[in-house]
Every structure is written in structure tokens, then in C-alpha cells.
Amino acid sequence: MSRKRFQRIVTIVSIVSLFGSTAYGAIGAINSAINQPKENATASLESQLQAQERGYKMVLQREPENQVALKGLVEARLQMKNAQGAIAPLEKLVKLNPSQQEYKMLLAQVKKQGGGDH
Q1: Segments making up each domain of the chain, as ranges
Q2: 63-80 pLDDT, tens per residue?
Q3: d(CA 39, CA 49)
Q4: Is the Cβ–Cβ distance between 89 and 74 less than 8 Å?
């Protein structure tokens, strides 16, 4: 075998090895990103919901009848599976909007779900 041919083969094998190891590393990184534990996503969502809840509570301290904040607080608490905590702002929404049947129905469902006679 000639020296030039030997060098070509070594070069080709080196290039293939380089691409193979790069691809292997990239595939590993992609797999770990895809297969991240769902707890991280759940924890992240939970922390986002807690931050939203704090924000709505701050607005309601300044403006106790702010309906956007009341609705947001109800939604955040329901997503956090805190039915009991959603009752008070829902009751306020019902009081502020007596003709809104959807608030009354949601309040009844939440009280039934949360087991509260608030």
C-alpha cells in the first residue's frame, strides 16, 4: 500500500470518527433534553402559578374589587388545585356581578369540589 493511500484512509477514518463522536454527543444532549423529568416542568409551572397568585394578591390589596385580578387569582388557585383558596375571590366576583350565572355555577362547583361551606 502506498503512503498516500494510507494517509487518505487515516484521514477518512479520522473524519468519520470526528463526525461520529460529535453526532453521538449531540444525540445524547437531545435525548437528555427530551427526557427531562416532568417534575422540573411541574415545579416550574407551580412556581409560575405562585408568582401569579402573589401578583394578583398585591393588586387586590390596593384594589380589592379589581375583577381582572379576582379572576386571575381564581384561575391560578384552581390550576394549583387549591379549590378552598378560590372560594373567597369567587364569592366576591359573584357579589360584584350578580347577573353572571357562570360565576355562580363555578362557585357551586368549587365549593362542592373543595368541600367548603364558606
Answers
A1: 1-35, 38-118
A2: 999 999 999 999 999 999
A3: 15
A4: yes
Chain centroid to CA 18: 39
Nearest to 79 by CA among 43, 46, 118: 46
Rounded to two decimals, the pTM is 0.62
The C-alpha cell that represents 81 in the structure block: 388545585
Q: Which CATH superfamily is domain 38-118 in?
A: Tetratricopeptide repeat domain (1.25.40.10)
Tens digit of pLDDT for each residue in 89-112?
999 999 999 999 998 999 999 998
User: Sign of torsion, CA 54 60 63 65?
Assistant: positive
Q: What is d(CA 95, CA 103) in angstroms, rounded to the nearest whole number?
A: 10
Q: Taking all residues of the chain, what is their mean pLDDT, rounded to a whole number?
A: 81
